[in-house]
Amino acid sequence: MTTYNIELEGDVLKVGFGEPAQNDQIVRDATARLEQMSKLGQLSGGPLLKINGPASLPVACVVAHKVCHLYGAVGVFDPKLGKYVIAITHNPTYKLGDLID
């Protein structure tokens, strides 16, 4: 088992905590998982990636850093809004702060 779980389901990157640990270990595990997914061709890039699930700030930074150059835009789910908020974009279709389903 790992301290942080990451799976790609369609265009949604499902993330969440696993075994209890401190952020230093969680960041290392998240990085290792993202690198594994890249090597397996699971993070091949595209126009949009949506991220859904809990993350600490250090883990969120790692995930953002690893995917921001692969995808044209990255939306992060906001449970209060019930929508994804575009937080990173290089794609003219999406503007920062756009809300998408």
Any descriptors?
Transcription Regulator spoIIAA, 101 residues, alpha/beta
Task: Tell me what you see in this structure.
The chain is globular. The chain has one domain: Transcription Regulator spoIIAA, CATH 3.30.750. The N and C termini lie far apart (31 Å). 28% of the residues lie in helices and 31% in strands. Helix 1 packs parallel to helix 2. The protein is of the alpha/beta class and 101 residues long. Strand 2, helix 1 and strand 3 form a beta-alpha-beta unit. It has a six-stranded mixed beta sheet, covered by helices on one side. It is built from two helices and six strands.
What is the rounded distance between the termini?
Answer: 31 Å
Major sheet: 6 strands, mixed
Q: Within the largest sheet, what's the order of strands?
A: 1-2-3-4-5-6
SSE ordering: EEHEHEEE
Q: What structural class do you assign from the helix and strand content? A: alpha/beta
Q: Tell me the number of helical segments per DSSP (H or I, 4 or more residues long).
A: 2
Q: Could you say what the CATH topology is called?
A: Transcription Regulator spoIIAA
Helix content: 25-40%
CATH class descriptor name: Alpha Beta
Query: pLDDT under 50 segments (min length 5)?
Result: none
List strands and helices in order, with pairings.
Elements: E1 4-9, E2 12-17, H1 23-39, E3 49-52, H2 57-67, E4 73-78, E5 83-89, E6 99-100
Parallel strand pairs: 2-3, 3-4
Antiparallel strand pairs: 1-2, 4-5, 5-6
Short overview:
With 101 residues, the chain is α/β, with parallel strands linked by helices. The chain has helices spanning 23-39, 57-67, and strands at 4-9, 12-17, 49-52, 73-78, 83-89, 99-100. The mean pLDDT is 97.
